[in-house]
Amino acid sequence: MWLYLSLIVILLLLLYWGLCNRSSSPSPFSADSRRPPAPLVIDKDVRKKILKKGVNPARSSFSLHAVLVDHFLEGGWYPQGVASEIVFQSIPIIERSGGTVLTKAPVQSILVNSEGKAYGVSVQKGQDLVNIFAPVVISDAGIFNTYERLLPAETRNLPGLQAQLSMLQHGIGGFSLFIGLNGSKEELGLEAKNYYVYPTNFYLNAPRETAAKNIPLVYITSPSAKDPTWEKRYPGKSNMIVLAIAQYEWFEEWKDEKVSKRGEEYESLKSVFVDSMLETVLKIYPQLKDKIELLSSGTPLTNQHYIASPQGELYGAEHSLSRVQPEVIAAIRAQTPVSNLYLTGQDVFLGGFPGVVHGALVCASAVLHRNLYIDLTLLERKIKANDSKKKN
Ligand SMILES: *[C@@H]1O[C@H](CO)[C@@H](O)[C@H](O)[C@H]1NC(C)=O
Ligand SMILES: *[C@@H]1O[C@H](CO)[C@@H](O)[C@H](O)[C@H]1NC(C)=O
Q1: 126 and 151 part of one domain
Q2: How many domains does the chain have?
Q3: Ligand located closest to 380 CA
Q4: Ligand 1, atom 1: nearest CA belongs to which residue?
Q5: What ligand 2 atom has the least distance to the C-alpha of 382?
Q6: Whose CA is nearest to atom 2 of ligand 2?
Q7: What is the pLDDT of residue 18?
Q8: 182: Cβ below 6 Å to ligand 1?
Q9: Structural domain for 176, as ranges
């Protein structure tokens, strides 16, 4: 049952969704959040080769990479209470604006009438399908899922829609490793930092077993060390996330097997990746060797199962050089060839959290026929004026 982790893979929002609701809500990004320092590159020889995460350097855009580096130069923001707070804090905003958030209600299809207009979604509730009607349907399920799986077959063949799909590729898949550690961040020497480790560049063209031992990019971070509320909630414990990129095809042969029942061969392939990633982690943090209490790893198939990324993508549609060509940018919009159906999220803009937020702004602007970036600029001015009034 795909689309299982359905914390609203499609958000059905009423037209009058008050995205620009001005009353300030408690923000997970409040001023006293930790500001982790810039990402740290430990191998100086490969520093020059390092380009945007999630895209092969040879195919990535320099200006996008510059934006990413600039974003981190002053440090990044981290939500208090870790990343799940982003969803948790968003729900009351949606509800205040007349929306409803449904979980365990995977969307099965987008309802399209005989005139080709979207008018709602069909969601699964237990064994039944329930239709939910709406004047506007906004899909955050990604362009591939929305067009190739959720739209009815006769709509899928619309030329405009096929033209958009032909301009995009699936982004790179991810392999993730979650580590539970015995010890506080002080005891373990964990800091609010991201490591991007690039020991080799022989990988994606390699056979999977060779690749597993030559992982070229390992991203290492400790969410618990970034979260100022962590110590109160889980005293004496820490965690770590380690990410690598991985080809979907390496794991594809197990795609029809049930999650956590994919057999010995799959598990042993996974463990080669895990051992290799752990080795890199322990080079940076040798003190963690005897502190590991839990290891849990996921392949592109895991992403496919839990977050319905069609090929285990880390960042949706690939944001390579071809993605940022003017004709592609002009073609991929929040508005779709199906009236009343809009796309939001990373495929409308770019991958990563800022990309998703901008995708949402672009989408809401399209739905409301108003440029919300102007509203945002005015709001920023107001807040600044307010702040300086308070200081005086
Ligand atoms: C965690 O570390 C503490 C202190 O070093 C130790 O007493 C405890 O036994 C450890 N727990 C586990 C599960 O290893
Ligand atoms: C300005 O400050 C007042 C009083 O602190 C507050 O009620 C209001 O929400 C603030 N407005 C903005 C735009 O931040």
Answers
A1: yes
A2: 2
A3: 2
A4: 182
A5: 13
A6: 386
A7: 30
A8: yes
A9: 39-76+172-314
- For the Cβ of 184 lying below 6 angstroms from any atom of ligand 1, the answer is no
How many angstroms separate the alpha carbon of residue 182 from the centre of ligand 1? 6
| pLDDT at residue 257 greater than cutoff 60 | yes
Q: Which CATH number characterizes residue 212's domain?
A: 3.90.660
Q: Over the stretch 370-384, which tens digit does the pLDDT of each residue have?
A: 999 999 999 999 999
Closest CA to 323 of 176, 72, 143: 143
Average pLDDT value for residue range 312-332:
89
What span, in angstroms and rounded, lies between the C-alpha atoms of 77 and 261?
38
Q: Ligand 2 mean position to 386 CA, how many Å?
A: 6
Which DSSP string corresponds to 164-207? Answer: HHHT--BPPEEEEEEEEEES-HHHHT--S-EEEE---S--TTS-
Report the separation in Å between the CA atom of 79 and the middle of ligand 1, taken as the mean of its atom positions: 28
- Could you read off the pLDDT of 48-82 as tens digits, one per residue? 444 334 566 667 778 777 877 787 777 777 888 88
pLDDT for residue 392: 73
Whether residue 128 is contained in a domain is answered as yes
Whether residue 377 has its Cβ less than 6 Å from ligand 2: no
Do 146 and 216 share a domain, yes or no? no
Q: Are strands 40-41 and 194-197 parallel, antiparallel or unpaired?
A: parallel
- Measured between its terminal Cα atoms, the distance across the chain in Å is 58
The pTM for the full model equals: 0.78
Cα 384 to Cα 382: distance, rounded to the nearest angstrom: 5
